[in-house]
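We emphasize that the prediction below concerns an isolated chain of 68 residues; any contacts that depend on oligomerization or on bound cofactors are therefore not represented. The input was used exactly as deposited, without trimming of termini.
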Amino acid sequence: MAKKAKKRKYSKSSGRDVKSEMRRYKKGSAKSGRGGKGGKVKSRKQAIAIGLSKARKKGKKVPKKKKS
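Result of the prediction step, given as a token string:
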């Protein structure tokens, strides 16, 4: 039996957006909120969420946010 090809949940370019946001977080220049006026990003999870949000705004392939 041949293996079924897995379909990507996230596009490669959205991964790059998250990567660049993580780099900003590690450097200490990542800000949360509109226009970077908010406070410093304090956690890795927050940095990843910001990166994914930016990717969504650009129209890249990223799954929708989970509604609780």
